[in-house]
Amino acid sequence: MRLTAEPAQTICDDTGQTYVVDAHLDVRGLICPAPALESLKATMALRPGQVLEIVGDWVESKFEVPAAILRPGFSILAILEDEESDLWKIYVRRDH
Q: What is the tens place of the pLDDT at every residue in 45-60?
């Protein structure tokens, strides 16, 4: 899938349900542990039901960010990777 760093308006999960993206966090150019720490701070600012899009390009962070943000009260809706670059996007939702 070809990705861009532009913020998405909506995201579709694996079941086909569509969610509005409420916030965007760009951690491109940062190396670990900064993307995970910034993502953790950003998820804490979400209100119940809100969705955060995280975009990055540090390969290891696409594994470390989900581990940092997945905790009770949060769901990862999708993890998208670009086949032609190191760009990735992670969508997390604060549950009700």
A: 999 999 999 999 999 9
What does the angle CA 16 – CA 18 – CA 90 come to, to the nearest 5 degrees? 95
Residues acting as catalytic residues = 32
Instruction: For residue 79, give every residue at least 6 positions away whose Cβ sits within 8 Å of its Cβ, in sequence order, or none.
Output: 62, 66, 88, 89, 90, 91
Q: Which of 43, 53, 44, 47 is nearest to 77 (CA)?
A: 53
The pTM (predicted TM-score) of the whole model is 0.94
Instruction: Provide the Cα torsion 2, 4, 7, 12; round to 10°.
Output: 10
**Fold of the CATH domain 10-94:** Translation Initiation Factor IF3 (3.30.110)
The residue extents of the domains of the chain are 10-94
**For strand 23-26 and strand 51-56, is the pairing parallel, antiparallel, or unpaired?**
parallel
